[in-house]
Amino acid sequence: MKTKLMLVVMLAAVGCKKEEAASTTAPAAAAKKSVKIGVLTDMSGLYADLAGPGSVEAAKMAVEDFGGKLGDLPIEVVSADHQNKPDIGSNLARQWMDVDGVDVIVDVPTSSVALAVSELVKQKDKVFLASGPGSTDLTGKACSPNTVHWAYDTYALANGTGKAVVQAGGDTWFFLTADYAFGQALERDTSAVVTATGGKVLGSVKHPLNASDFSSFLLQAQSSKAKIIGLANAGGDTINAIKAAHEFGLTKGGQQKLAGLLVFITDIHALGLETAQGLNLTTAYYWDRDDQTRAFAKRFAPKVKDHMPTMVQGGVYASVLHYLKARQALGAGNTSGAAIVAKMRELPSQDPIFGAGTIRADGRHVHKMYLYEVKAPADSKGPWDYYKLVREIPAEEAFLPLEKSVCSLVKK
Amino acid sequence: MQALFSQLLVGLINGSFYALLSLGLAIIFGLLNVINFAHGALYTCGAFAAWLLLEYAGVGYWPALVLAPLLVGLLGVAIERTMLRRLYRVDPLYGLLLTFGVALILQGAFSLRFGSSGQPYQIPAALQGSVDLGFMVLPYYRAWVVVCSVAVCAAVWWQIERTRLGALLRAATENPTLVRAFGVNVPRMITLTYGLGVGLAALAGVLAAPIYSVRPLMGADQIIVVFAVVVIGGMGSIFGSIVSGFALGLVEGMTRVVYPEGSDTVVFVLMALVLIFKPAGLFGKAA
Quick count: other Cβ atoms within 10 Å of Cβ B207? Predict the structure, then answer.
C-alpha cells in the first residue's frame, strides 16, 4: 500500500510539471487587433538565466525602441515556459498561433523544441526568430522560409573556439556531450572543425540533459588522455562540468584543458572567475565591447536582477527590432510569415548588439563573432568584468559558408 | 579495471547524498506516515542557507555545516507545527499534496530571487586539493562527504534502533495513546522527528553546495531518484534506506562505465524489478 502510494506520487510529480505548462499559457486574445510577439522560452529551468525572463524583457525593449505601435496596431509581448520539452513547446506554439493570434515566436532555447516549433510555424505561415537554439539543422536540412536563426549556432561556436584551440596546440579532443539535438550537433560540428584543422577526436561520452554529477564522465575524459576536453553542452550542465573538472584537478598541471563550446556570461558569473579563468569561448555579444553594447546592457540589467544580457537575450532584442522594421516596410496588412521573412532578408540589419548584419537565403543571420578568454580574478576591475578579446571573427568566416549548406532554399 | 574502480568510488560519493536524503525521507515516512515531497526543496534550502550565511553574515563552511541544518530544521518544525500537524488524521495523500505545494513555493521563491544558474560556493580551504590514489584523483572534499555521510547515517540508525529514545519513538508510531500514558509528550516528539529528517536533508544540501552550484532546482533533480531509492530499500526501513542509498550510487557508477546514456534510468529499472519480485522493497516487511 505504502509503496503503491509512493509510485502514484512519483508519477504525479512528473505529470504535474506538464499541467503547470498548460496553465502558464498567455490569456486568450481579445477581439482587438494587434501585433503579437510570443516569447517561448525556459522560464524556470537550467536555461532560465541565459534566456527566460531576460528574453521577455529584451523583446519588450525592442518594442519600446520601435515606438510601441506598428502603424495603428499596438504591439503586445506574451510569454510562456516550454520547459525544454518539445511536446510542451509545440503545444504552446500551436495554441498561440491557432487561438491567441500570435504573429511571431521568438527565442526558444533548446534545439529539440526549436526544430519542432520551426516546422509548425512553417505550416501556419507565421515567423520564427530563433536566437535561443544552437543546432545548425535549423538553417540546414530543416531550414524553413519562415525561420530566421539569430545570434549563434553550433557551427559558429565550433569554428570560433574549436579552430582557435587546435591552432594553439590542443590537437586531441574528447567530448562531453549533452544527449539531445543541440549537444549532438555541437559535437558533430566541432569534430569536423578539429579534424579539418589537423586535430584528432579520441572519443566522447553522452550525458543526460541536466545531469547533476559530472565526475564520472570527467574520469572517462581523463583516461582518454586527450589534451582537450570539449564541453558540448550548455547552461547548468556546463557549469557543473567545469566545477567538477576544477575539483578533480583535471586542469591542474596543464595536462588537460577544458574548451567550453557554448558558454554564456551568466555561466561565468555562476562559476566565479577563480574557477572559470583562462577558458576560451566564442560569443556574438559581450556587454563591455563598445559604447553601444554597454548602453544596451545598462538599460537591460536593472530589469533582470542586475544580470548582464547574454547573446541569446541580445538576439531576441535585435531580431524583434528587425522583424518590426520589415513589417513596417512591407505594410502592416501583410501578415504572411514567408513574405515578412523575405523582407527581413532584403533589408540589411543594424542594431547596437550585433552591429551590421544580413540574413541569407537559408535563414541564417550573419554578423561578426568574437573569441574571448575569461579573465583571472586579479585582472577583473569590477562586477561582470569577465572577458578579454582574443580575436574578432569576420562575418563571412564565422558561419557555415552558403555553398556548403544543405538547405533546400539555397539555389546552387 | 582502473575505470571501474574510479567509477565505483564516484558512485559511492553520489551514494552518500542518496543515503542522507533517503534516510531523512524514511524516518519521516516511518514515524509520521508523511511522504515528504518537500525533501528536495529542503535540501536546496540547506545549500542556500550555507550560501546566504557566507554572503550576508560572513559565516564560513564549518559553522554552516551545523547552523544551516539547524535553521532549516527549525523551518521544518514550523512547517510541522503550523501545517502538517492538521493532516495526520486524514489520508496520507493530503500530507503529500501539502509538502508538494511547499516544495513548489520554496523552489519558486529561490528562482525568483536568485535566478536559475546558481551561486558559487567555494570548497573550504582545509579540504582543497586532492590525493592521487593511483587509479584516480580523489579530491579531499569528496572523501570528506563520504566520511561525513557514513558517520551521520550510522549515528542516526543507532539512535533510532538501539537507544531508549529511539524505542519510544518507534513505540509512539505504533500506539501513540499508550506511549502518552507513560508520560511522554508524543506531539513534541513527532515535531522533533520531522525537524531531524529535514535537518538531514539540509545537511546533504550544505555538503553538496561546494560541489554542485547552489541552484533552486538542485533538489528537484535529485528527489525523484531518492524516492526510488526509498522504494527499493523498503518504505520506512531506516537500514534499508541507508544501504540502498549507497548501493544505488554504486550501481549508477557502474552504469556510467558500461552505458553512460542509461545512467539516469538504471535506478528506475531496478525499482521496477524490485517491485515485481519483492514488492515490499529489499529490506521492507510485507504489509
Answer: 26
Q: Which of A47, A240, A247 sits opposite B123 (nearest CB)?
A: A247
pLDDT at B250 over 80: yes
What pairing do the DSSP bridges indicate for beta strands A387-393 and A369-374? antiparallel
- DSSP conformation class of A282: E
Phi, psi of A288 (to 5 degrees): -100, 35
pLDDT band at A17 (very low <50, low <70, confident <90, very high): very low
A53 pLDDT more than 60: yes
Q: For chain B, what are the domain ranges? A: 2-218
Cell of B268: 528506475
Q: How are strands ordered across the β-sheet holding A104-107?
A: A69-70, A73-81, A35-41, A104-107, A127-130, A147-149
Q: Could you tell me which residue, A369 or B254, shows the higher pLDDT?
A: A369
What is the residue-wise DSSP string for A40-90?
A: EE-SSSTTTTTSHHHHHHHHHHHHHHHTSEETTEEEEEEEEE-TT-HHHHH
Q: What is the rounded CA–CA span in Å between residue B188 and residue B194?
A: 10
Single out the residue of B205, B213, B248, B241 nearest to residue B40, CA to CA. B205
Interface residue A267 vs chain B (CB under 8 A)? yes
B287 to chain A: which residues are within 8 Å by CB?
Answer: 1-2
Considering only CB atoms, B120 lies closest to which of A52, A250, A271, namely A271
**pLDDT of B220 over the 70 cut:** yes
Under a CB-based contact definition with an 8 Å cutoff, are residues B245 and B232 in contact?
no
In chain A the domains, ranked by start, together with CATH numbers, are 34-152+290-368 (3.40.50.2300), 155-289+369-394 (3.40.50.2300)
On whether the CB atoms of residues B221 and B213 are closer than 8 A, the answer is no
Cβ of B212 and A212 within 8 Å? yes
Instruction: Note the ipTM here.
Output: 0.76
pTM: 0.80
| Cα distance between the two ends of chain B | 42
